[in-house]
Amino acid sequence: MTHVRRSRARDHVEVASRIAARLRRARRTRPSIDDSLDGDRLLGDLAVTPYWVAVRRRRIVGHLAGQLLDDGISPAYWVGLDGLSYDDPTVLEKILARAVRAVRRRGVVDWHVTVPDDAREIAALAPYGFTPTQRLGTLSRVVPERGAPPDVRYRRAGADAESLLARASDLVDLARGVHPTAPAEPLDPTILTWVAETDRPLGVAAAFPRLDQRGVRPGTWHLTTVAVEPATRRRGVGRALVTALVEDARRHGARAIDVTWDPTDATASSFWRALGVEETTVVASAALATPAAPRWPRRAPGPPASPAGRNG
Ligand SMILES: CC(C)(COP(=O)(O)OP(=O)(O)OC[C@H]1O[C@@H](n2cnc3c(N)ncnc32)[C@H](O)[C@@H]1OP(=O)(O)O)[C@@H](O)C(=O)NCCC(=O)NCCS
Question: Is the dihedral angle over the CA atoms 119, 122, 128, 133 positive or is it negative?
Answer without folding.
Answer: negative
